[in-house]
Amino acid sequence: MVTAATGNKFIIIEEWDALFREAKYETALQDEYIQLLRGIFKSSEQTNKMIKAAYITGILPVKKYGTQSTLTDFREYTMLSPRNLAQYVGFTEEELLASVPSRMI
Asked: Please, which residues bridge with residue 56 across strands?
Protein backbone atom coordinates (compact mmCIF):
# COMPACT_ATOMS: atom_id res chain seq x y z
CA MET A 1 0.00 0.00 0.00
CA VAL A 2 2.74 2.48 0.94
CA THR A 3 4.89 1.32 -1.97
CA ALA A 4 1.98 1.85 -4.37
CA ALA A 5 1.35 5.35 -2.99
CA THR A 6 4.97 6.54 -2.75
CA GLY A 7 6.99 4.28 -5.02
CA ASN A 8 9.31 3.57 -2.07
CA LYS A 9 9.95 0.06 -0.80
CA PHE A 10 10.20 -0.68 2.90
CA ILE A 11 10.60 -3.68 5.19
CA ILE A 12 8.56 -4.58 8.26
CA ILE A 13 10.07 -7.06 10.72
CA GLU A 14 7.64 -7.88 13.51
CA GLU A 15 9.29 -9.06 16.75
CA TRP A 16 12.84 -9.04 15.40
CA ASP A 17 14.01 -10.53 18.69
CA ALA A 18 11.64 -13.53 18.88
CA LEU A 19 14.45 -15.90 17.93
CA PHE A 20 16.55 -14.73 20.90
CA ARG A 21 13.67 -15.22 23.30
CA GLU A 22 12.33 -18.52 21.95
CA ALA A 23 15.60 -20.22 20.93
CA LYS A 24 17.91 -18.67 23.48
CA TYR A 25 20.34 -21.60 23.54
CA GLU A 26 20.64 -22.06 19.76
CA THR A 27 23.61 -19.75 19.27
CA ALA A 28 24.43 -21.00 15.75
CA LEU A 29 20.91 -20.12 14.60
CA GLN A 30 21.14 -16.73 16.33
CA ASP A 31 24.48 -16.00 14.63
CA GLU A 32 23.00 -16.93 11.25
CA TYR A 33 20.05 -14.60 11.87
CA ILE A 34 22.35 -11.73 12.88
CA GLN A 35 24.36 -12.26 9.69
CA LEU A 36 21.12 -12.11 7.69
CA LEU A 37 20.17 -8.80 9.33
CA ARG A 38 23.65 -7.42 8.79
CA GLY A 39 23.49 -8.47 5.15
CA ILE A 40 20.22 -6.63 4.68
CA PHE A 41 21.02 -3.46 6.62
CA LYS A 42 24.78 -3.05 7.07
CA SER A 43 25.72 -1.73 3.63
CA SER A 44 23.80 1.54 3.64
CA GLU A 45 24.60 2.54 0.03
CA GLN A 46 23.27 -0.73 -1.36
CA THR A 47 20.39 -0.82 1.11
CA ASN A 48 19.31 2.71 0.20
CA LYS A 49 19.01 1.63 -3.44
CA MET A 50 16.71 -1.25 -2.50
CA ILE A 51 14.60 0.03 0.39
CA LYS A 52 13.63 3.43 1.71
CA ALA A 53 12.84 2.48 5.30
CA ALA A 54 12.44 -0.38 7.75
CA TYR A 55 10.04 -0.71 10.67
CA ILE A 56 11.23 -3.22 13.22
CA THR A 57 9.40 -4.13 16.41
CA GLY A 58 10.56 -6.16 19.38
CA ILE A 59 10.91 -6.34 23.12
CA LEU A 60 14.71 -6.44 23.24
CA PRO A 61 16.71 -3.43 22.08
CA VAL A 62 18.89 -3.70 19.03
CA LYS A 63 22.30 -4.29 20.57
CA LYS A 64 25.85 -5.25 19.74
CA TYR A 65 26.72 -8.84 18.94
CA GLY A 66 30.44 -9.53 18.82
CA THR A 67 32.61 -6.60 17.82
CA GLN A 68 30.23 -4.97 15.34
CA SER A 69 26.84 -3.54 16.02
CA THR A 70 24.06 -5.51 14.42
CA LEU A 71 22.03 -2.63 13.08
CA THR A 72 23.63 0.79 13.10
CA ASP A 73 21.51 2.88 10.77
CA PHE A 74 18.35 2.85 12.85
CA ARG A 75 16.76 5.34 15.19
CA GLU A 76 15.43 3.46 18.17
CA TYR A 77 12.11 4.50 19.70
CA THR A 78 10.93 2.88 22.92
CA MET A 79 7.96 3.15 25.26
CA LEU A 80 10.28 5.02 27.65
CA SER A 81 11.79 7.23 24.96
CA PRO A 82 9.23 7.55 22.15
CA ARG A 83 10.38 10.98 20.96
CA ASN A 84 8.04 12.35 18.31
CA LEU A 85 6.06 9.08 18.26
CA ALA A 86 4.76 9.57 21.82
CA GLN A 87 1.19 10.07 20.67
CA TYR A 88 1.29 6.67 18.92
CA VAL A 89 3.18 4.59 21.51
CA GLY A 90 2.10 3.38 24.92
CA PHE A 91 -1.13 4.14 26.75
CA THR A 92 -2.86 7.36 27.70
CA GLU A 93 -4.01 7.94 31.26
CA GLU A 94 -7.60 7.60 30.06
CA GLU A 95 -6.86 4.20 28.48
CA LEU A 96 -5.22 2.96 31.68
CA LEU A 97 -8.12 4.11 33.85
CA ALA A 98 -10.61 2.49 31.49
CA SER A 99 -8.76 -0.84 31.65
CA VAL A 100 -8.67 -1.08 35.46
CA PRO A 101 -11.85 -1.97 37.37
CA SER A 102 -13.01 1.00 39.44
CA ARG A 103 -12.75 -1.01 42.68
CA MET A 104 -8.98 -1.30 42.14
CA ILE A 105 -8.35 2.43 41.76
From this structure: 13
